[in-house]
Design a protein that fits this description.
Blueprint lengths: L3 E4 L5 E4 L27 E3 L2 H7 L2 E9 L1 E3 L5 E3 L8 E4 L27 E2 L1 E2 L2 E2 L15 H13 L4 E4 L9 E5 L5 E10 L5 E7 L9 E2 L3 H4 L3 H7 L4 E2 L1 E2 L4 H17 L13 E2 L3 H5 L5 H12 L8 H5 L10 E3 L13 E4 L2 E4 L6 E3 L3
Parallel strand pairs: 9-14, 17-22
Antiparallel strand pairs: 1-2, 2-3, 4-7, 4-13, 4-15, 5-6, 7-8, 10-16, 11-12, 13-14, 18-21, 19-22, 20-21
Length: 362
């Protein structure tokens, strides 16, 4: 994954090529801004969409989708599923993902819990946070509804959740009634920094053999639970440069249709509006693009009071918090998260729709 393409608004396919890293201007105006930032930017290199897309395959891994497991001591342990993540017990164990690369392109192993399960990270989507930095969460009950939509789509039976001692939303599964676990399989081509497989997830079984290399088409991607979460207004689309352009375009179309329907997360989302976020309490009560929420939550967890210092905190070059973000509609590739976010007083908003953004993974 050394060349990371996406398609700009003009239809040109571009790659982010580490070998051609050069300084370039920012999207926003330079007047009054002083010198360019010390960090270098990513150059534009034409790449054929057909050539790039045909080279991308995903490894098929079969197993079971789980909400609980029994550890070696015979104790049942419950997970904390949300709208874009849950446990998966690969039939072949950790070896089923062996050799798949991490963000740096080198092979990276997955992490199994004592029950032999990995925590999945769903590709191309981001659901409202249900548990972040302890007991923090995004707007309720929409964050719970996102989780329940996913688990119902998988076909799990009734669930009970333990009430947290510190209060807040019950998130840890206390009991999972039959049917549980449920058969499923994933399509994977990378492992994230936290050793989670980045996957398209499917409920049920497949006749394909374990380990098959699958060229994922938009039609097949739209059968995934990932796509169903977007179509059911239970998750935002969130695109990284590792996602094939045709899959990105398919998910963007699903999101636009869901937003038009105005249900689920789109009934409460205020990402494009001036949203009060001057405290942790205000932030937790809002429905913002989860990537922006996590940056803001970490800012407040660092002891901040009010939004006045957020942009300086975000752009601190030593901290490396300011994600590289490309804007599809403008074709701008030399931008960062602070270029697509606005702060005014104690309110914040995104300048672009979430499906208009492509993030470079760390």
């Amino acid at each position: 994954m050394r060349d990371l393409p996406f398609v700009a608004a003009c239809g040109e396919t571009l790659a982010l090529a580490p070998s051609t890293r050069v300084p370039s201007p920012r999207l926003r105006g330079e007047a009054g801004r002083g010198a360019f930032p010390s960090t270098t930017r990513w150059a534009k290199v034409p790449v054929g969409a057909r050539e790039w897309g045909s080279a991308v395959t995903y490894r098929l891994v079969k197993g079971q989708l789980r909400l609980t497991y029994v550890n070696p001591a015979g104790q049942t342990r419950g997970g904390e599923p949300d709208g874009d993540s849950l446990w998966f017990e690969p039939a072949g164990g950790a070896a089923a993902f062996a050799g798949l690369p991490g963000p740096d392109g080198r092979p990276r192993s997955v992490e199994l819990n004592p029950g032999g399960c990995v925590q999945l990270r769903f590709e191309a989507i981001d659901a409202l946070e249900l548990h972040y930095l302890g007991r923090h969460h995004q707007k309720a009950p929409a964050c719970e509804e996102a989780r329940d939509t996913l688990l119902d789509a998988i076909g799990f039976g009734p669930r009970q959740y333990a009430t947290p001692a510190s209060g807040g939303i019950p998130v840890r599964v206390k009991r999972a009634d039959p049917p549980h676990p449920r058969p499923g399989y994933v399509l994977c081509r990378s492992i994230d920094p936290n050793r989670r497989p980045v996957v398209f997830v499917y409920a049920g079984t497949t006749t394909r053999a374990e380990g098959t290399q699958v060229h994922l088409t938009p039609a097949e991607a739209k059968k995934s639970l990932n796509a169903k979460q977007v179509a059911n207004s239970a998750a935002y689309p969130t695109f990284y440069t590792t996602l094939p352009p045709d899959i990105r375009q398919a998910f963007a179309a699903l999101a636009q249709s869901a937003r038009t329907a105005g249900k689920g997360v789109w009934a409460v989302d205020t990402s494009r509006e001036w949203t009060p976020a001057g405290s942790f309490a205000q932030l937790d009560a809002a429905a913002l693009w989860p990537k922006l929420y996590r940056r803001l939550a970490s800012y407040y967890a660092d002891g901040a009071t009010g939004l006045g210092g957020f942009m300086a905190w975000l752009t601190d070059p030593a901290a490396k918090r300011n994600d590289e973000v490309s804007v599809i509609s403008t074709g701008a590739m030399d931008t960062e998260l602070d270029d697509v976010v606005e702060v005014s007083g104690q309110k914040v908003r995104l300048k672009y729709d979430v499906e208009d953004l492509v993030v470079r993974p760390r």
